[in-house]
Every structure is written in C-alpha cells, then in structure tokens.
Inverse folding.
C-alpha cells in the first residue's frame, strides 16, 4: 500500500464513522458561559480546556460513579453487556491489507485503520466552531487538532491496548498517518493507520485442511467494565477487497462486547475474529491426486502375468521411491509441531500401501522360483508335502508352473509319480528316527519343506496371493473413506 493511499483513509474514516453517535449516556448539556468563553480568548481557543479539566478522569465520570453507587453491591457481572452505567467508547476498524501469515512463528502481518470515538462535554469549542462567535459561512464543523502530541497530552483518551500485538509501525515519510479530530458536537475521533504484527496461536493438526482462528482483541488495562464500555461503531468493522492472501480464504466476524477478569477485577473487552481457511484444491491436486495415481500404478501391476513378477518389483520399487521423494518435499515444508498431522497420516499410509504392493510382487517371485525348482526336481528329498500344491492347477501357482518340465525329460510322468510314491514310503520309514534325533538335539528337521505346518502356510499364502489385488484395493478404499470422514473437517 502506497503512503498516499494510506493517508487517504483518515478523511475517509472520518466521513464513514463521523456520523455515529456514541451512546445515550453522553450528555450534551453545557452552559452558555462555556459556549461563549472562547470567542475572544486566543489561549482558550488553542487549549480547548479550562483549569477544571482533569485528563485523569473520563467524561461524565461523576454521573457514572453516581450510577454505580446506586447499584446492588451483590450484583454480578450478569449477561447484559455493556454495563448500564458504563460510559461508551466506540471502536471502528478498517482492514486494509493482509501482508503475510507466518506459520512458523504464529504471526500475522496486516495494514489496518483503527479509530476510537467518544464525546467529551468538558471540551470548550474554539470560536470558529461556535455559531455564537462567527457567521454561518465561517463556521466549521470538523477540525484536525494539531500539533497532535500537544492535544493527546492534555485531552483524556481511552487506555486501550490490543492484546497480542507484537509491534506496529505508523508511516511518517510524508506525513504521519494518524489524526485527532474534533466535531462541533464535542465528539473526538482518534484515528491511526498502521502496519501491525499480531500474535495468533495456530493449530495445524488438520493441515492442509486446517482453519486458523485469530482474535483481534481490544481491552482496557485501567478502567473497569462498570465505568468504561467498549462498543462497535455502526458499520464499525470493515474489510476491504485487498485484505486477502494467496492460498487462503479470509473471513472476519464482529463479536459482541465482552469482559475479561484479571486478579479479581473485570475489564471491558471487544473482539474481531479472523478466520483463515486454506484453499484445498491446491493440496488436492499437488499431493493427494499424485499419491493416489502412484497407488493405481502399483495396483495395476497386479494384473501383469505372474511370470513377470520381477518386473512388478521394479515398477513398484520405482513408484515407491518417487512417492517418498514427492511426499518428503511437502512434509519438510509443512508446519512443524509436537503432534501428528493429517498430512503425516496420509504420507505414512500411502507409503505403506506402496510397500505392500512391492512385498506382494516379491512373494510372487519367491513362490514361482520355489515351485519351478520343485517341478524340475521332483525326486528331491522332502518335497512330498508341496508336490500336490505345485501340480494342482486349480490355483494360480499350479497354472503358472504347469509347463515346467522335470529334469529327466526322457522319463514319463507316470514313472516320476512312481518314484514319488517310493520316496514317500522311504521318508515315512525314516520319519521316526529323524524325529527322535531332532528331539534329542533340541533342534528341528533339517529339511523345512518336509513339515506339514509349512505346507499349510504355503497353502494359505498361495490362496491369499490369488486374491491379494482385490484385498489390497479393498483396504485402500477403506482407508480413503476413513481418512475423509475422520481427517477432513
């Protein structure tokens, strides 16, 4: 925002907010003596106050204290805010430009125009604002009080502060972008346009679907809620079209006046809530869609012929490395915190499903290698349990190795089968000595393929591998549904 553009907001705010009337509590009663006091007194014309003016007390403080003294001492804070006795100070806030959201330090940077408005009947209007001193064509309804530091030192102003404000800067390259404005009804506008850095606690548990809520809180540090009330001007909270940031949807909500308690004392408070929502389409297109496409490639590899399972391993390993490289970039650039984010959950499970697809291809490769060796060497000791599994063409493993020939191609299958039965009888005769030897040494059988338990394990593994592509797809769809329900607000 250029300096000239910022300076333009001060008279604009005066025009927008200047017609507002601050409460019904401010009285406009003044004596005719005060009306005419400054007609011929140049000193009073400059000072605007007399010797009875005390800048330590707020306007109408005597009426406020009288109202409080008539209250029930046992009265609580109650739900009616602002307090019925409190003197109202109106606030106007114009949001000009949103500069930055620092997610690393939980800070937001913005340009704002801030305004406080109140009526002080103790002010003595200068002669050029008094209709009894000058003619109608010379009468002025609004003036800027200058020098600014002089009037801010002698005129009472609210003791308000912005909670969580870590710093502000008022531009003064050409002219300071702040003003103190006096109206002919003794209403005072305190305006300032500034660049502000506001602290905003952020929660990134649902990143990148998170919604950050920041409060712009105005409080009084020395006036109790029964004496001073902070209220909004009519149309007091305004957001310009420039108040936006790439990658976010920004909403502003005007809150009702409230109070806050410190050390047993209750102080007035006013809030404006900023809601920052990330634009999700960017993260869906750059993270979630590519991750799902990686899984689709790994899943489609299931339908390649089993004899090229080694090629499946290469494809799955390549897609896994590509996925890990892509997700690591976004994880490294995502907000850090001491908790698991939904983005982390997506990364972990995406890599897990890629690993499962790769592991499935490796198991296929191992089973085919083992079955091919058994088919080529049917007379090898300890193959009696798995021979039926290898030659059974009702499942995929038997179909894949059905064309594998035995090592002795000159012999027929019937002769081979007779040799298998002969080896079976021999192995049964040797079974008892082998078991006693294994029990005596505390070991196991030397040939693990001679175990019925191993045969049952292979049987289950082969059955699983036949339906593994559909099981993997089912679990991935379950994960997608659970992620959408639990992790996407």
């Amino acid at each position: 925002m250029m300096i000239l553009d910022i300076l333009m907001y001060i008279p604009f705010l005066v025009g927008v907010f200047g017609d507002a009337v601050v409460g019904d509590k401010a009285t406009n009663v003044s004596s005719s003596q005060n009306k005419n006091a400054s007609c011929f007194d140049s000193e009073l014309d400059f000072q605007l106050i007399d010797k009875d003016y005390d800048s330590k007390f707020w306007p109408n403080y005597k009426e406020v204290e009288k109202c409080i003294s008539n209250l029930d001492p046992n009265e609580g804070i109650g739900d009616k805010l602002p307090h019925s006795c409190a003197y109202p100070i109106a606030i106007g806030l114009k949001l000009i430009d949103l500069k930055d959201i620092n997610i690393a330090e939980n800070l937001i940077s913005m340009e704002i125009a801030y305004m406080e408005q109140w009526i002080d009947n103790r002010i003595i209007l200068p002669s050029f604002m008094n209709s009894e001193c000058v003619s109608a064509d010379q009468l002025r309804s609004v003036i800027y009080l200058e020098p600014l530091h002089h009037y801010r030192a002698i005129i009472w102003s609210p003791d308000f502060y912005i909670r969580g404000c870590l710093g502000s800067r008022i531009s003064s390259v050409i002219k300071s972008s702040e003003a103190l404005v006096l109206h002919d009804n003794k209403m005072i506008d305190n305006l300032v346009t500034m660049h502000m850095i506001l602290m905003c606690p952020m929660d990134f548990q649902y990143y990148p679907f998170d919604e950050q809520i920041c409060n712009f809180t105005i409080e009084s540090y020395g006036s109790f809620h029964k004496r001073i009330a902070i209220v909004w001007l009519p149309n007091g909270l305004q957001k310009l079209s420039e108040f936006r940031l790439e990658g976010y949807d920004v909403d502003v909500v005007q809150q009702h006046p409230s109070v806050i308690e410190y050390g047993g004392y209750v102080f007035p408070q006013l809030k404006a809530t900023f809601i920052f929502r990330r634009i999700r389409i960017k993260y869906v297109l750059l993270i979630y869609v590519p991750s799902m496409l990686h899984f689709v490639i790994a899943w489609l590899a299931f339908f390649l012929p089993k004899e090229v399972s080694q090629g499946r391993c290469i494809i799955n390993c390549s897609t896994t490395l590509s996925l890990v490289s892509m997700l690591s970039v976004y994880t490294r650039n995502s907000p850090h915190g001491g908790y698991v984010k939904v983005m982390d959950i997506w990364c972990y499970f995406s890599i897990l499903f890629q690993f499962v697809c790769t592991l499935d291809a490796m198991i296929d490769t191992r089973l085919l290698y083992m079955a091919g060796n058994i088919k080529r060497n049917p007379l090898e000791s300890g193959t009696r349990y798995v021979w039926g599994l290898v030659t059974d063409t009702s499942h995929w493993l038997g179909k894949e190795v059905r064309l594998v020939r035995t090592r002795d191609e000159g012999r027929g299958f019937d002769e081979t089968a007779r040799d298998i039965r002969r080896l079976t009888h021999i192995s049964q005769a040797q079974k008892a000595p082998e078991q006693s030897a294994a029990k005596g040494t505390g070991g196991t059988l030397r040939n693990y393929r001679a175990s019925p338990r191993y045969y049952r394990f292979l049987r289950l593994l082969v059955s699983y591998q036949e339906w593994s592509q559909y099981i993997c797809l089912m679990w991935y769809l379950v994960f997608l549904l659970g992620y959408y329900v639990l992790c996407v607000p």
